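To the team - pyridoxal-5'-phosphate complex, inputs and output below.
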Amino acid sequence: MSMIGLNDIKNARNRIVGHIISTPLVCSPTLSDICGVAVGLKLEHYQTTGSFKLRGATNAILELTEAERAHGVVAASTGNHGRALSHAVRAVGSRATICMSRLVPENKVSEVRRLGADVRIIGNSQDDAQKEVERLVAENGFVMLPPFDHPAIVAGQGTIGLEIVEAMPDVNTVLVPLSGGGLAAGVAAAVKSMRSHAKVIGLTMERGAAMKASLDAGEPVLVEEFPSLADSLGGGIGLDNKVTFPMCRALLDDVVLLSESEIAAGIRHAYVREREILEGAGAVGIAALIANKISGLRGPVALVLSGRNIDMAVHRRVVNATGNPPA
Ligand SMILES: *Cc1c(COP(=O)(O)O)cnc(C)c1O
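Output:
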């Protein structure tokens, strides 16, 4: 199995440092109050392109050879990876083709288009989009840069873990949104190699949680994909997963599942109490804390707010709803 380690992540940081923002980790008095332990928010939704995906995408693009850059890159995406890649290729004069399913919200699709990528809308799942990627690789010789299962992507996302430990040296618990596991694997590798006692917990939605189902089964499995407020967490982990499944199995202490109404409450709390606009995937950490879903929580806690690219009409509907919306 290919595991990414602290050195890979430090090398990634040296490579991407001039291209990304090192985001702040700020104290949340309201969440610290609710939880009874210090809670810090890693404001990764302020990353350029509105999500952490720019770190991995930039690291992967900068590792390509001149010849590979000349061919152009292709990826399947739930939106944010595509947006990050479309931004990152501009720095090296390459081109991106992004394949997305019909489940990807229109606001994300139009941002990818605006950045100048070639957009293909294919089928009703990430798996359908991935088939189109493979066709384009075979027919056009594009270089595939997957959203998570790639060493350079994991190492890039892991730079968040370095920044967390630097800002919060006594961190005991790190909460990370979890889909394909690039973010969780990278952050856990960085944090645990510097703070071996710290727990890293993945958070995801109840329906269609592919990594959770795969960890339970002991091998990558297929799950059905459903619409969710946490649309960035949709999609499978790939039946031939090479990097993120073994790393998540070795490094994650737990995976916690959130219902749609809990995720909505997380978005609402972020807005009303923290003054932050988050997409559903970015709010799962807050959702888990306010729903008291993490047993034996030990502080200080660092929580990754992973993205803010929510359709604003959806955001208005969620924050204006009183009480819990129907699940
Ligand atoms: C991609 C994404 C995630 C999940 O990251 P993985 O590396 O696939 O686990 C979480 N939050 C946001 C906002 C994302 O775009």
